[in-house]
Amino acid sequence: MTEMSMKQVIEPKVMGVIGMELLQSYSIASGDYNKIHLDETIAKAAGLPGVIAHGMLMSGWMHTRVLQALVEVPDFKNFTLESTQTRFRAMTLVGDEVSVSGHWQIESSENIKLDLVAKNQKNETLITGVFKLVK
Amino acid sequence: MLSLTKNFDFKKHIGAKSKVYHISFDQERWNLFCKVLGVDPKDAKDSRSIPTLVTACRFGEFDLIEDFGGVMSSVLHAEQEYQFKGEFKPGEILEYQTTLENVLERSGKGAKLHFMVFKTSVKTERSGEIAICGSTLVYRELLT
Asked: pTM for this one?
C-alpha cells in the first residue's frame, strides 16, 4: 500500500430516524439543550421549519459509520481515526431517515482518506465529511 | 428567537477566550451517548469508539456567544473539525478552553450571517492535549 489507490465504495447504511425522544436523549448525553432541537414553537419562532436535529448528532452518526468501516474493510486494519472535517449542508428535520455512504482511497502506506455524505430519505445531502485514518 | 438587528460586531471579540471548564462523563451518560450514536457500550471502553463525545466540550462556545450579547436559538452549525490526539475513559476529567479565532460576515436573504470560528483544546491530566476541536457556527441576525 504505497501508492494512491482507486476509490472504493462505502456502502450506504441507515443510521437512524430523527424523533423527539432521540433528540431529548442526545441533549442529555451531549449537554446541548438548545431549544431549537427540543421545542417546536421556539424553533419556528427562530425562523426554522420546525425542530431540527443537533448538527453534532449527525456528525456523530457519520463518525459511527467510519468506525463501522474500520471493522468491515480489511485494508483498514491497524489504522485509527486521526482527523475529521464535516460541513453542514442542510437542516435535518424530525422524521428524516438518515443514511451515510461514500468512498475511501489509500493515499499512502500510512494514510487513508474517506469522503462520506449523509442524506435523508429524499436523497437530499445533509452533511459531507472528510475523515483521515493513520497507521 | 432569531436575533432582531442589534448591529452585532462580533469581530471585535476575536481572540476572546472562555473560562476553563472541567467535565467528566459517568458510565450512565457514556452509555446513553453510545446508544444514541448506534454504538454498543461494550465496544466503547474509551472515547475512540465515540470520538464526537468531545463535542460536549462546547460550553465555551455557548457562553462566549451569550457574553457577546447573542442568543443560542440564532445559531446553526456550518463546519466542524477535529484532530484526535488521544483518548479518555468514563469518569476521567476533561479540561477545556475555547477561543474565538475569527469572524466572517455575509449578508443573506433578510439576514446578516456572522460565521464565528472557534477553537477548543481538550486535555486530560493523564495524556495532556487529547483533541483540538474547530467549530464554525453561523449566527443569523435578522435584517429589518
From this structure: 0.89
